[in-house]
Design a protein that fits this description.
345 residues, alpha/beta, TIM Barrel, two-stranded antiparallel ribbon, 12 helices, 11 strands, 12% strand, binds 2-acetamido-2-deoxy-beta-D-glucopyranose, PLC-like_Pdiesterase_TIM-brl
Length: 345
Amino acid sequence: MSLIPLFMLLQLHLVCARPLFPLPSKTSNEEKKTLQTFRPYNIAHRGSNGEIPEETSAAYLRAIEEGADFIESDILATKDGALICFHDVTLDDTTDIAKHKEFADRRRTYEVEWFNVTGWFVVDFTLAELKTLKVKQRYPFRDQQYNGMYSIITFEEFISIALDAGRTVGIYPEIKDPVFINKHVKWAGGKKFEDKFVDTLLKYGYKVRTQDTNQSYWEITSDDYLAYISNYVVGLGPWKDTIVPVARNYLMSPSDLVARAHAHNLQVHPYTYRNENQFLHFNFHADPYAEYDFWLNTVGVDGLFTDFAGTLHRYQELTSPHPKDETANSLLVKIVEMITAYEGH
Ligand SMILES: *[C@@H]1O[C@H](CO)[C@@H](O)[C@H](O)[C@H]1NC(C)=O
Ligand SMILES: *[C@@H]1O[C@H](CO)[C@@H](O)[C@H](O)[C@H]1NC(C)=O
């Protein structure tokens, strides 16, 4: 199974050069605080989907408010070729599609990556049709109060949310199931899903380097492959259990993947960190801070995909806070010196 997907090759930063295309952003880039680089990245997995239904504008806005450095999204395509933020190829688990009688006859069975899947597929709906649906929370044990409130958003709307943030917020988009999408969705001029994805990023001034990854985990994590990809990618995003294997819900000895990636000057951003006890291995005693401590301080990763950007932010602010404002800090030092001098007399 190719479990290290395309997004490992697509860490994107806003380019400083003025983009050729007018941005929808309301704030100018010059006055924005830049992306922090002094500590590992807080990457909001599908937005703050621990709190708000995944990949909605509200989930992304919450993540930004909570301090995420990057917002992550899965990209799929609609019947009419629009790129949207959505994780599953079917709408069943995270929307109210089942309540829409007008779409009852749209259920299908398709082969998706070697499995037959039955449901309402995004590729059978136009963007306008999808916009009539509402997104809901994936897990029953999470807050259900936002179900039915938010729509599916487009890739461009996602980009606008990042660009409109009051500080620089990176984006971390992943294209999903390109073979399946290209089979069901056709674009003018013979363009492929991957082309539309890259075109969209370029339009908004993002630098893009991309490559098809159709290799197995073992091929992708071999030293030869790491050396090869280090020429054009920033890092890899493996599932965390592949870095530190798990048995009977306890961590085993870490593999050498992080050390080998670092030796090739590649960052490692594992996924997915979740607060709930059903996702935490027993070593962490039901404490998400203990998990962050282990991955940041023992394993030494460079970024983490979390469902709870606010929790990771709070942990990082406690353990490696943003440097205090220089002027305020030096003023404080002066005051302390004055008091000390006064007391000395
Ligand atoms: C999916 O179903 C079709 C029709 O029943 C069948 O021909 C095909 O082999 C199935 N594919 C898989 C991967 O099970
Ligand atoms: C990926 O590999 C599979 C199996 O080798 C092949 O059927 C498929 O066409 C490949 N996809 C791409 C995008 O190269």
